[in-house]
Design a protein that fits this description.
about 0% strand, 1 helix, about 60 residues
């Protein structure tokens, strides 16, 4: 059995257009309450009923 090895040509990089990578933005702190409100806004909710208290209180 003959094993054939082929090499891949080196990658071609365009040095003139390459520049520093953009700095990533720090992640936004999103609470469960913010996520809930954003979701309700996205679906067009205008009125929300609930019983405030306990863990859901930040949403009100």
């Amino acid at each position: 059995m003959i094993e054939q090895v082929t090499e891949r040509p080196p990658a071609q990089h365009d040095v003139e257009t390459a520049g520093p990578a953009p700095r990533p933005r720090p992640p936004e702190h999103v609470t469960g309450a913010k996520s809930l409100i954003r979701s309700l806004e996205e679906v067009g909710a205008e009125v929300v009923f609930g019983i405030p208290g306990g863990a859901i209180l930040p949403a009100y």
